[in-house]
Amino acid sequence: MNEKLTRNIGIMAHIDAGKTTTTERILFYTGASHRIGEVDNGEATMDFMAQEQDRGITIASAATTCFWKEHQINIIDTPGHVDFTAEVERSLRVLDGAVMVICAVGGVEPQTETVYRQADTYRVPRIAFINKMDRLGANFESSLNELSVKLGANPIPLFLPVGSESEFKGIINLMSMKFITYDTSDQGKTIVENEIPQAMSSEAEQWRERLIDSVASFSDEITELYFEGKDIPLALIMSTLKEATIARKALPVFVGSSLKDIGVQSLLDGVIELLPSPSEVPPLLGINQKTGKNVEVVYDKGKPPLALIFKIQVDREAGPLSFVRMYNGTLRKGTSIMNITKKKRERVNRILRMHANRPEELTELEAGDIGVIVGFKEGRTGDTIGSEGAQVLLEEMHFPTPVISVAIEPNTLSDGDKLRSALSILAQEDPTFTHRDDAETGQLIISGMGELHLDVLVTRLTKEMKIQARVGKPQVTYRESILTEASDTEHFSKVIAGKENTAGIGLTVRPLSRGSGTKYSCSAKVRGIPEIYTDAVKRGITNAFNGGIQMGYEVCDLEAEVTSIEYNELTASEFAFEACAAMCFDKVAQQASPVLMEPIMNVTIAVPSLFVGEAISSLTSRSGLVNSIESRASGEYIHAQAPLAQLFGYTTILRSATQGRGTFSMEFDHYAQKQQ
What we know:
This protein is of the alpha+beta class and 676 residues long. The protein is built from 15 helices and 38 strands. The strands form 8 sheets. It has an 8-stranded antiparallel sheet with strand order 18-17-23-14-15-22-19-20, covered by helices on one side. Strands 2-3-1-4-5-11-6 form a 7-stranded mixed sheet, with helices on both faces. α6 (201-216) crosses α7 (220-227), α12 packs across α13 (574-590) and α14 (612-620) packs antiparallel against α15 (650-657).
C-alpha cells in the first residue's frame, strides 16, 4: 500500500442532507458497486442494517473501500441523527479528512454544527459539498454565507452551479473555467466539458477572482504573480489550497446534486487533491507506558505496530469484529498483539477489509489503513493495540452520557439470560448504551442518547436477536452531586475466616463546576502505602461514584480526595480498604448537601414565522428558556434549553401548536440541579 495514494475520509452531515446518496454515487463511479442503491427504495449499499432500510436513515457508521484514479479511498459513512452522535465521534477520531454534505435548501443545520465542532476537536481537515441544488428552494449563496456565519469557516468555492431547482443543469469549474455537464444516459459517468454560457461568463469571472484572492492570502508567490498579471499555475493553486485545508484555514466548497448525478466525480477529485494522506496529517498524541510521558505518534511503517479500535460490531458466527485504524507498523494475520489499554494479549485470527457489509480477506494491515480484525476477545471501542515492547497509549475517546432510560423485561423467564447476553452485545457495540439492575425496584434498566436511539436498540433485540421483551415508558437518567465541601474519616474492622481485616481512611469531597464529571485524587500526605491498597481505595471510591449518594444515581461534578490512610501491615487487606473507601465516601457525601441533577438539553425548533409565538409558548410552558431566534429563508429557528423530563411527547405538542409544520431536534448539554 502506498500511503501517498491512500485517503481515509468520512462523510458527515445533518439528517436528510443526502449523505448516503452521495456515498452511493461515489461507490458507483469508483466501480465498487455496479448499480446505484437508493435510500428511498431501501437499497443503499451503506445502509445494510434492516432498520436503516426501513427508516431511511443511517444508524451505524459503515466502512468501505473504493479506488479512484489509482488512489485507495477508505470511506466511513456516518449517521446524521443526533441520537447516534457516538458513531460520528468515533469515526472522526480515526479519519484524516472529511466531506461535509450541506443541503442547499436547509443550509447549515443543527447537527451540521455539532459534527463541525466534533471535527474541530479531532483536528480533521474538511471539504464541503453543497448538495440538492435541484430541490425547490435551493440557494447556493445563502448556504455559502451560513458556512461563514454559523461555523466560522473560510469557505472557498471551486465550482459554481448553473441554474437551480428544476433549472439546475451543471457546474462551472472555476479553475479550468469550463462548464461541466453530466450525461444522463449512463447515470452521469460521462463528463462533458463546454464553454461557459455567455449569460454567466462575467459572474464566473468574478467568482474566479474571488477564488484567486482567497488562495493568495496563503501564498506570497501567488500574490506576486497576481500583481504582475502573470498566469498562476493550477498546480500551485491546488497545492496552496491543500496546505490551507490541512491546516484547517480553508474550507474548499464543491456543489452539485447527488440524486441527479451532478458534481460527485469533481468531489472525488477534490478528495484526492485536497485532503491529506496518512503521512500528511499532524502527529497524534500518545502516552509512553514506561515513562508516563506524552509522545508524538508520527506515521511510520517501519515502527512496531500501533492501532486504535474505533468500533466493535458483533457477528453471530465470527464473534466481535474490531474495526481498527493503523497508525504505525504492520499487523499480520496469525500473530499476537497487546491490548495496551486492557494490558492483555490478543490474537489476530483474521484480517478483513469491509466493502459495506461484504468482507475481503487480507494477510496484513499496514500503517495508514483501516480494516477489521477477527479474534479479539477483550477489545472495546477506544482501546489501543500495539507491540508489547513499545507500548504507547493513544488518546482515549470521550462519549456523551446516556440521558434517557427505559425498563425492559423478558416475556418469559427462559428469555432472561438471552436478554442479558444480547444487551451485553449491544453495549459492546455502542459505547453510549448501558444496562443495569435497579437496586430498589429489581428492574433491568437500559439507557441511551434519545428516544429514537432506544427504539432502534429495542427493535434490534426483538427483530434481529429474536428476543421478546416488554419495554416501559422513557425515564430521565438523573445524576447526583453535592453543593458544599465536607471531610470525615471511616474505620473498618471485621474478622473473616479467623483473620482480622482493618483499614482507616480520611476523605474530603468537594463540588466541581458543572460539566466537570468526577475526579479522584490522593493527597501528598498519603505516601509509603503499598500500591495494592491504594488501588483498592481508588476502586472502592470510583465504584461508589456509580452507586450514588441518596437515590442510587451516578454522581457527577464532584472530586473525592483521600487525605489519610491508616494502615497496619498485619491486618491490612485489599477487601478491607475497598469496603472502607466505599463506606467513607457514602458517609462524607451525605454531609456535603447532596442534590439531584437533571439533564438539560439544547433544543432547536424550526417553524414558519407565522407560528413563532405558539412554538415559544409551547416550550416555555415546559420550563424551556429561549436563547436566540434566527431567521432563515426556510423559516425561523428557535434555539433554547429545556429539562429533558419536560420534553417527552413534545413532538405532538409542537405539531398541534404549529398545524403540523414545526419540527425540533435536541442534544444533551449539561446536568443542572433539579428544580422542585
